[in-house]
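INFO  loader      accepted 1 record
INFO  loader      residues=368
INFO  predictor   begin
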Amino acid sequence: MSSLCTSQMIENSPDYWPTEYWHELDDGRIQCDACPRACRLREGQQGLCFVRARHNNAIVLTGYGRSSGFCIDPVEKKPLNHFLPGTPVLSFGTAGCNLACKFCQNWDMSKSREMDTLAVQAMPEQLSERAVDMGCRSVAFTYNDPVIFLEYARDVAIAAKERDIRSVAVTAGYICEKPMIEFFSHMDAANVDLKAFTETFYKNICGGSLAPVLETLKYLKHETDVWLEITTLLIPGENDSDRELDEMTLWIQEHLGFDVPLHFTAFHPDWKMMNHPSTPASTLTRARNIAQKNGLRYVYTGNVHDSNGGSTWCAKCGQLLIERDWYSLGEWQLDSQGCCTGCGEKLSGVFEAQPGVWGPRRLPVRMI
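INFO  predictor   done
INFO  writer      dumping tokens
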């Protein structure tokens, strides 16, 4: 049995949804080709992600149309600062994950191995209708990585588009090329979690690899119209050195450009890294300064109270464009075309004539 899968049987799983990305091996196993983990499964086995499994000699998605719960969040919480600011987004996830990050801060869902976690049912049409009823401008696949339930996320995005609701992927970008092309063809925005900038960190702390994530970032920026932002959670002593931050932000500038927003967020002890200290605000400020020195125009701090680091400033004249206090918007100095009212410089992003007024609220939602 491959070390990349579990031997837990799936006979009692409620749903088996067909998938496309797999192939048969000479030894009788089937390899899942959704992500670089390439789990090789015998009948009845699940991949490490928990929701993709072998059933009747095919790889299926279990739990299609089922979620761990739904909430309306401010879109800034994803985090997305240049995509429909101030608007509400209907957010949900499932269970499981294709990485094994020791610092996971949604571990109760991403590390779940219980189908009971997926207690809430909502088919794509029902979910998109609920988003409309609640006044949401978008739906977000978040809390755990949508790569592992890409067929469900795709179908939700298709149903949402029919109702003029946009789709947001919050992902680690750990996905193979063919499913990547299909998945992101249905997304309007993505926040990719660039967890660090060394293979050592990805291998030892996440159980994965950096290289596929960098390929995803380049694909999103240069081959799609998906609005892209990046998040890096800074963990003291692990991925926060000046050298690593310098190399990472120089890579972003060279390969993705100056205008991709970058969010540095603070770690707090969780899951299997309870003995690590929380990230001080000064670390985030230091990282922001390094990124700005390397030419990145829109660099943010998160998980700390820092209005300066959380707000958007004009890259040309320095005027405050979008004031943020946590997830609350304050001063707004963009015209109806998304340009600075001071100098006319266009702000990169997806903006409407007026900001939303949702505020910092988090509202649990029941499917009806």
